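pasting for ref
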Amino acid sequence: MNRVRLLAAILIWSVSADALAQQGAGGESANPNPMTTYERFASLAEAGDPEIQHFLGFMHFYGDGVELNYDASHYWFHQAAEEGDLKSMRNLGLFHSRALPRIPEKFFDPMEANLWFSLAAAGGKDPKLSSLASKYYGQFLAPDTKKLLQETDKRQSGETVYVTFCAGCHGFDGYASYPSAPSFALGEALQRSDSALITSILNGKGAMPSWRNNLSPDLANAAISYIRTILDGNTAGITRAQEQQSSSHQTASPERNLVEIGEQVYMQFCGGCHGFNGVAWYVNSPSFALSERMDKRNEELANSIRNGRGEMPSWEFMLKPEQIDALVLFIRTLSINYENGIASNLRAAPESFFRFRPRGVIGPKPGGRNYLDF
């Protein structure tokens, strides 16, 4: 891991998914006539484009448009993250943590998870945090972190420990970036005594690793003191926690129910071509994860589904009007899931689904009992 590049990566901003879609569609590619989405983007990723490298990591992670391959996914996320892609940094944090049980155990590395979570949080939220992360990650990557921490001014030791070892998962501002990690700004876990929290830091708790080899009890205590100041300085935290708790008890909204219906329809009728997680297999199908076609109004999208468009057939006689409306709502969530990273659930192919091959394509039909030639 190149230390200089890592520190420089904090200050680099990633380009948007829209730019990715435009670049791929706009045409600079070593393959002038790509058939698959992977062919469309692979040469650009190999040329060093970090946003497209991130996209290939996403494709391999979900097995959309390409075979599922965690090693390839990790490789492409790493390439993009080292060039400053913030989404890839966060995805690497998820890769190296226990946040996603289906990721192979060989990738588990809590130190590296915290590093990438921290770099992503610092680079994407506040320029001041970038400076803070840059300051402390020189220590984080140093060969003797423990000695450096012991030499730190005691008044700053709590902040130093928190930023170096905790902020990646629990958030620089106390709002956790790691699934299931307590958000201290909301008062989560702070009802426990200092001694219990110190024990958790030193011995580990749940998915959190032990920091006993890195931190002394005094430094762990300093971190707890600093953590409690996060809540003290955020009087809105309790209100926000109460609002979240209240909302969690509310029944699902009508729109959410429609999205769930749309997902069921999408998996059977659309996912085979457009990708079960939004990445199309062939280039003639839009990749909704990249927001392709998402500039259209709901009515236009519904009309394309009803009447067909280009090589896509009409579904008017197979889907009810309310199913089409629900389908449009669900399709719009796929680009949001892409931006949120690999924390989203994997949507595996159902037992039976439709997929249409472009005209002239021959050969075996991979997957899906309802696999139709077009």
